[in-house]
Amino acid sequence: MPSNTYEASPCQVGRQVPLTTVWSVIFPHCAFVSASHSVFASNPWELVEPPESSSSQFPITELGAVEGFFSSRGVHIVEVGLISEAGVGVCLACPCPRGDVLIVKARARDAWKLVREFGFTYLFAEGRERWLSRLPVQCLENPWVEGGTPEEEFTAFRTWASSEEATVTMGGFVYPAEPFGTCLACPCPRGDRLLVRAPTEGVEAVLRSYGFTRLF
Q: 28 with 59, same domain?
């Protein structure tokens, strides 16, 4: 199976797998257009129609297809999302990566199946870079401007973070694969998770002061 990594990859394959849940990633590719202008899927989850019950719980339709496809292959996904890195160039030829990253949290044995059979790689910290996480809360009580699509909200988050001298280029929102119950109080999590890659210890310190914690 071809590798889904490229030179700017934030990931590396680890030799040891944690015993509980594991984060892993893959780089989706562009659809292939034939000489006759027929469009062919480049990612396996594009070959199936997402179950209505699955796709309706995600703000991005593709995530429903991802969850549905891997569930049908015996992989239980805990959380799933699409993250991106600002300023990363993407070639126009296929099978070039689209520019975003599919990130999945799964049980260790399921993550190993994703790596072994579908070309995922385990997500680990590299050098001084650290992956941080925060559960956004309800009632517009997060420090950044909320609303719009996940991409628009992450752009708003990056704008806010830059104003706090915590420039972040890579990250995004991930979502539980199963319906998430939450209380009605404003301090309660709204159900998704914000993931960001802190490029320096200084950025990490600022974000941790706003409630972010290390992903691992």
A: yes
Q: How far apart are CA 15 and CA 8, in angstroms?
A: 21
**Of the candidates 95, 122, 149, which is a domain's last residue?**
122
Question: Number of structural domains, the chain?
Answer: 2
Instruction: Judge if pTM exceeds 0.70.
Output: yes
Of 125, 214, 192, 204, nearest to 164 (Cα)?
Answer: 204
* Separation between Cα atoms, residue 62 and residue 20, nearest integer Å: 26
> Can you give the pLDDT of all 216 residues of the chain as single tens digits?
333 333 233 333 343 434 588 999 999 987 654 444 444 667 889 877 666 655 568 999 899 999 999 999 999 999 999 998 876 655 656 567 788 999 999 999 999 999 999 999 998 766 667 899 999 999 989 999 988 899 999 999 999 999 999 999 899 999 999 877 778 888 899 999 999 999 999 999 999 999 999 988
Q: Is the dihedral of CA 94, 95, 100, 102 positive or negative?
A: positive
**Does residue 107 sit in the same domain as residue 136?**
no
62 and 104 assigned to the same domain: yes
Domain range for 158 is 130-214
